[in-house]
Design a protein that fits this description.
single chain, 482 residues, alpha+beta, Methylamine Dehydrogenase, Chain H, 2 domains, four-stranded antiparallel beta sheet, 30% helix, binds zinc ion
Length: 482
C-alpha cells in the first residue's frame, strides 16, 4: 500500500506501507510543484496519482515498479468542448478529485482577479471547477486488442481509444463489488459521448463487457447473439450485476426513451430509428428487472415465514426487516405464473398455508384509493388505477396511483422516495440482502439464512441499486447519481 504526502515545499513523498510488518519505508521524493501542494488524488487502484499545487499545475504520476513517473494528462476526450468561455487566468489550483468511475478528473482553480474584466467577471468569478476526461490515461487491462479497424475513429488516436476501452471496462468491473456505491454518471457520460461520435466503439465496449461479465467469455459472434443468450444466465448473476445492467440499459442504450415509456412498454418498436438493438435490450431489461423482482418477493416470503414462526413462539425481534405487501406479491405471482420459477411458486404456496393457519378469518387484502376510497385492483406492480367514483356530471373519475417498488402496495401517503433512473416510487425500503445477493442459483431458497436480519440502512432502488431521492422542488439542484 502506498501513501502519498504533499508538502509545503512543493514536493510529494510516497511511502510504502507494509501492512504485515506495520512498517513505513520512504520510497521516493518528487519535486512536483513550485509551491505548496494543495491536493493529491489516487486513481485506478493506486496506479495513478494526481497532484495539484498553488503554482496552478496539475500533474499526473503513474506507478512504474515502486516509483512514480510523470505522464501528461490526455487532452482528448469524447465530446470535448472548447473552454473559450473560461478566462484562462488562473492563479492556483486548490484541489483535485477523481470521479467514482475514475473517468473524470475535477480540479478547482481560483482566478487571478487582476486579469479579469472588473465590470462583471471579477465580481462573480472567484474560482472555477474544470473537468477533464482521464479515461484515456492508462491501459489497465492486459488483453486489449482493438478489434475494430482504426480508420473507423476519425480524429481520435487509436491508442487512446484502447485506453478508453480498458478504463471503462475496468470501471464497470469495479462496480460489481456491492460494497462500492453504484454511482455511474461518468461511465454513462463517457459512453453517451462516444455514442454520438463513434457508435461502433460503444457497441464494441458493451459487447466485450457483456460477454465477459454475463457469459463467462464464451465465444459469441455479435452483440445481438450476446443479447439473446444473456437472459438465460441472469439467474446466476449477482444482484449488483443486474443493477449495473439495468442502469446501462436505461441510460446508454435506451437513453432516448423516457423511463415511464419503458415501464409501460408503450413505445417499443421501430418508431425509434437508429436503435437497431433496442428491442433486444428492452427485452433484456425486462427480464433483468423481473429477476430482481423475484428475488425481492422470495426474500419477502422467507422473511414472512420466519416472522410467522417467530410470532408463534411470541418472540418477535425488533429491528428486523419485516415484509409488507405479501398479498400483492401473491397476486403478482398468480398473474405471472408462466414466467416465475418453480421454487418461488412453492414458497408462495407455503406462505398461503401459513396465512390460513394464523389468520384464518382474514380476507380483506383489498386496497382502497387514497382519493376516493374506491377499490384498487391489482393489475401491475408499478402503477394502479382505482375503480373510480362517479362525479356530479356522471363521469367516472379514476385515479392513477403509484405502487411502492418494494412492497407493490399502493403508496398511501406521499411516497417517500423516488428513483431518478426507473422513475418508480418507494415507501418501504428493500432489505439489504437483496443488494448483496450473489445469485439465485438453483437452490430452493434465496441464499439468506436469516432474511429478517437484513435491515436496509440506505435508501436504494431495488431495481437500479442507486441511491433514491427525496423529491425536491424543481428549482433546487439535486445531485443525481446517474
Ligand atoms: Zn380513486
Ligand atoms: Zn439511472
Ligand atoms: Zn430504479
Amino acid at each position: 500500500m502506498l501513501l502519498a504526502v504533499g508538502k509545503g515545499s512543493g514536493s510529494v513523498e510516497v511511502w510504502a506501507y507494509d501492512r504485515s510488518g506495520c512498517q513505513c519505508d520512504n520510497a521516493c521524493v518528487y519535486d512536483a510543484h513550485d509551491c505548496v501542494v494543495t491536493a493529491l488524488a489516487w486513481a485506478f487502484d493506486g496506479y495513478c496519482l494526481y497532484s495539484s499545487g498553488q503554482d496552478d499545475h496539475v500533474r499526473c504520476w503513474v506507478l512504474c515498479g515502486s516509483c512514480l513517473c510523470e505522464v501528461p494528462i490526455p487532452s482528448n476526450g469524447p465530446g470535448l468542448r472548447s473552454s473559450n468561455d473560461l478566462p484562462g487566468a488562473f492563479l492556483s489550483c486548490l484541489g483535485v478529485a477523481v470521479s467514482p468511475g475514475n473517468l473524470v478528473l475535477a480540479m478547482v482553480r481560483n482566478t487571478d482577479a487582476e486579469q479579469l474584466d472588473p465590470m462583471y467577471e471579477r465580481r462573480v468569478l472567484k474560482a472555477a471547477v474544470q473537468f477533464f476526461w482521464i479515461g484515456g490515461q492508462l491501459n489497465l487491462l492486459p488483453d486489449n486488442s482493438l478489434d475494430v479497424s482504426k480508420d473507423a475513429f476519425l480524429g481520435f488516436p487509436a491508442n487512446e481509444l484502447v485506453h478508453w476501452k480498458s478504463s471503462i471496462l475496468w470501471s464497470l468491473k469495479k462496480f460489481e463489488n456491492p460494497e462500492k456505491p453504484l454511482v455511474t454518471w461518468d461511465i454513462i457520460a463517457a459512453l453517451l459521448a462516444f455514442k454520438q461520435s463513434i457508435p461502433n466503439f460503444v457497441d464494441e465496449i458493451l459487447f466485450k463487457w457483456l460477454s465477459v461479465t454475463y457469459l463467462d467469455s464464451s465465444v459469441s459472434h455479435s452483440l445481438d447473439d450476446v443479447l439473446i443468450r444473456i437472459p438465460q444466465t441472469l439467474l446466476t448473476a449477482t444482484s449488483r450485476q443486474l443493477h449495473l445492467l439495468n442502469v446501462i440499459c436505461r441510460h446508454v442504450i435506451l437513453s432516448q426513451l423516457m423511463a415511464d415509456e419503458i415501464n409501460s412498454k408503450a413505445n417499443i418498436g421501430p418508431t425509434v430509428a437508429d436503435m437497431e438493438h433496442s428491442p433486444l435490450w428492452l427485452e433484456l431489461l425486462f427480464i433483468s428487472e423481473r429477476e430482481l423482482r423475484e428475488r425481492l418477493v422470495g426474500l419477502s416470503f422467507s422473511a414472512f415465514l420466519t416472522h410467522m414462526s417467530h410470532s408463534a413462539k411470541s418472540s418477535i425481534e425488533s429491528g428486523n426487516w419485516s415484509p409488507v405487501g405479501v398479498a400483492q406479491m401473491e397476486l403478482w405471482i398468480t398473474r405471472n405464473h408462466d414466467h416465475i420459477r418453480v421454487q418461488l411458486k412453492e414458497l408462495a404456496s407455503e406462505v398461503v398455508k401459513a396465512e390460513r393457519r394464523f389468520e384464518p378469518m382474514e380476507s380483506g387484502d383489498e386496497e382502497q384509493c387514497i382519493h376516493c376510497s374506491a377499490l384498487v385492483p391489482f393489475d401491475s406492480p408499478d402503477v394502479a388505477f382505482c375503480c373510480g367514483t362517479e362525479t356530479v356530471n356522471g363521469v367516472l373519475e379514476k385515479h392513477k396511483l403509484a405502487r411502492c417498488s418494494t412492497s407493490m402496495q399502493v403508496c398511501t401517503t406521499t411516497p417517500s422516495w423516488f428513483c431518478k433512473c426507473c422513475h418508480r416510487w418507494t415507501s418501504k425500503l428493500a432489505p439489504e440482502t437483496l443488494f448483496t445477493m450473489p445469485g439465485y442459483g438453483s437452490d430452493v431458497r434465496p441464499p439468506a439464512e436469516s432474511p429478517t436480519a437484513g435491515v436496509q440502512s440506505k435508501a436504494l432502488c431495488p431495481f437500479c441499486g442507486i441511491l433514491l431521492q427525496r423529491l425536491l422542488p424543481d428549482f433546487l439542484p439535486s445531485a443525481s447519481p446517474v
